[in-house]
Amino acid sequence: MSAVLDRLFTRWYPLLMSISERAGQADVRTAQLSRAVGRTLEVGAGSGLSLAHYGDDVTELVLVEPDADFRRSLRRTVDSCTGRAWPVTVVDADVHRLPFDDASFDTVTASFTFCSVGDPDVGIEELHRVLRPGGRFLFHEHVRGHGLRARVQDLVAPVQAALAGGCRPNRDFAARLRDSRFRVDELVPGRMPRALPTVSPVVHGTASRR
Q1: I need a surface site. Which of 34, 141, 177, 195 has the fewest CB within 10 A?
Q2: What is the longest distance spanned by two Cα atoms in the chain?
Q3: Residue 105, SS3 per DSSP
Q4: What is the pLDDT of residues 126-137, one digit of tens each?
Q5: Is the bond preceding residue 197 a cis peptide, omega within 30 degrees?
Q6: What is the band of 1 on the pLDDT scale with cuts at 50, 70, 90?
Q7: Domain span at residue 112?
Q8: Structurally, how many domains does the chain consist of?
């Protein structure tokens, strides 16, 4: 049953996200990802919603996606994007164990990924490992709310995780990032437009490897 639900998730998730993208979420992606420079790694690339938002300062883009159905969609998205000045590689890998050398990327990025990572502390540490000293982590994640919203997120977390590819709406990504070896340089709170109430609030910002 879980395999069926995961396959369905890969179908409806891009459609749901496209609503938020058209309502303004795409502008946040552009503001974030246009800051990527050099050799860039994106983890949890999904169907490729972020691809169009990277700028000309990228020299190479490596997209990591562990789900086979998403990878097929991702490769179609890559093939349909013309005019980019940098090569793109799609890699079957998991953020818990990235198949890359230490300090091999200038920028790492994640957009709405860490809610579904099995062990987010390990994933954050892996991004720190593959990022060069002084490099930046550009993140865009939904996080645990406060008060009643947080209690609702706790209540629905098991159901949402089952239906939405492991997404846990009550993850406190910002706190985990602050407790990591990254230095948090910018943390901007916000809301995802026209999103489900359990996937709000969101944060975006930058962290750097010391």
Answers
A1: 34
A2: 47
A3: strand
A4: 999 999 999 999
A5: no
A6: low
A7: 2-209
A8: 1
